[in-house]
Design brief:
Bound molecules: zinc ion
Largest sheet: 2 strands, antiparallel
Number of domains: 4
Radius of gyration: 30 Å
Helix content: 40-55%
Distance between the termini: 82 Å
Strand order of the largest sheet: 1-2
Length: 411
């Protein structure tokens, strides 16, 4: 038994569905046959297979080609660091020979934004003429695609759950019976940009070395999202993004943006370079926003209203904290008592600034490192006071019992 040869851009779930119709067997029986294990132990989705190697072979395709042409893998991994994407690819392609790779984290976002199957009426009509049947296109099932990138017409929402289910409707292929045109909650220009960008990501040809945060920041600044004192107006950009997409669409994609704007996800995407694991949907929303954003007078006045933030003089703060901590350690030394790092930071009044900006406190850090290894530290390296007293020999301390034993030893 073989699986049907996939049509161009056909979703993996659609291939299985056509196979079910050809062989007249249940989804459960087919998954058990494909994976050679009980269906309950298989790990499969409409958008991605955990055993690409097996399915591709049954379809007569090279596994990697199948992964890139019939699953959402290139889309969901498009903005990930190259090395991480390669390791995911290797795990998926090798899962037949080792433990099945859990795919829920990769396809979770797709299900949130596109909970039901969608299709383009004109694509379906072309497919019917060309192949004699219709099928579910991969690109139409993406959460950021509301109109067909080829025909520029709104997609039809079918109401059929996008997962692989055993219900009767799940077996259905696109047909006029399901025509329920839905007006996209976005302007056609933005919807088309999102659809085209999403299609580009499916091609799998993109640069994984790009610093997205840097790119977005540069583009936002070029558009005029800059405060009068020179900083990027990330909060105002976030507000403008939320107005372009509207609360309803952002909620649908699980990408809600709300005040305080400066700490919402679009603002962080413009500012931080540390988080490299932002979902592809958020990247696409930012990308399409920057393609069309305009800084009008209202946004300009909002940017002008923001006062220049007070800059903390970390150098002076570090010096003062170091001196206060040294004084406190000296006091404990002469009193023969011990204390903790937490107490020292509290005395120096830098607990919060130190916790959030540790790299800005090099002098304080050096004093604390030295303190941790000293007798004045309550928490000795390698053990708490309680355990040092209970098991002194473990920490290189001689106990009374050990001392007595060595004194009475004949040697
Ligand atoms: Zn179409």
């Amino acid at each position: 038994m073989l699986l049907p040869k996939p049509y161009p851009d056909e979703a993996v779930g659609s291939v299985l569905l056509r196979a079910q119709q050809v062989y007249g067997i249940s989804l459960k029986a087919m998954l058990a046959w494909i994976y050679e294990m009980p269906a309950s132990r298989t790990n499969h989705s409409f958008h991605l297979s955990t055993d690409v190697d097996r399915i591709a072979t049954l379809c007569g395709m090279a596994p990697r080609d199948f992964l890139y042409e019939h699953t959402v893998f290139p889309y969901v991994t498009a903005c990930l660091p190259g090395k991480y994407k390669e390791s995911l690819e290797a795990k998926l392609l090798a899962s037949r020979h080792c433990r099945p790779y859990p795919i829920a984290s990769m396809v979770g976002n797709i299900g949130v934004g596109a909970s039901t199957r969608r299709y383009c009426v004109r694509c379906a009509s072309d497919d019917l003429v060309r192949y004699g049947e219709t099928y579910w296109h991969r690109v139409h099932q993406l959460p950021t695609v509301l109109i067909c990138p080829v025909h520029k017409t709104p997609l039809v929402l079918t109401g059929i759950p996008s997962g692989l289910t055993c219900g009767k409707t799940s077996l259905t292929l696109p047909s006029p019976a399901y025509v329920r045109p839905v007006k996209p909650p976005l302007t056609m220009v933005i919807a088309l940009t999102l659809a085209r960008l999403s299609q580009d990501l499916l091609s799998g040809r993109y640069d994984h070395g790009i610093d997205w945060h840097d790119l977005y920041r540069t583009r936002a600044r070029k558009l005029g999202f800059v405060h009068h004192y020179g900083d990027t107006a990330s909060g105002v950009s976030a507000l403008a993004l939320s107005e372009v997409y509207g609360a309803k669409y952002l909620r649908l994609l699980d990408c809600t943006v709300r005040a305080p704007w400066g700490s919402s996800w679009p603002a962080l995407l413009l500012r931080s370079s540390r988080n490299q694991f932002v979902s592809v949907v958020r990247h696409l929303l930012m990308h399409a926003f920057l393609d069309h954003a305009l800084v009008d007078e209202r946004l300009k006045s909002l940017m002008d209203k923001v006062a220049k933030p007070l800059r903390t003089d970390f150098q002076a703060l570090d010096k003062a904290a170091k001196e206060a901590i040294q004084r406190e350690i000296k006091r404990h030394k002469s009193a023969g008592t011990r204390t903790t790092v937490g107490h020292l930071l509290h005395v120096a009044d830098v607990t919060q600034p130190y916790r959030h900006n540790r790299s800005r406190f090099p002098a304080t850090e050096a004093v604390l490192t030295e303190f941790r290894g000293s007798d004045q530290s309550e928490r000795q390296l390698g053990g708490r006071a309680y355990w040092r007293a209970r098991t002194p020999s473990r920490w290189g301390l001689s106990s009374k019992r050990e001392a007595t034993a060595s004194e009475t030893s004949p040697l």
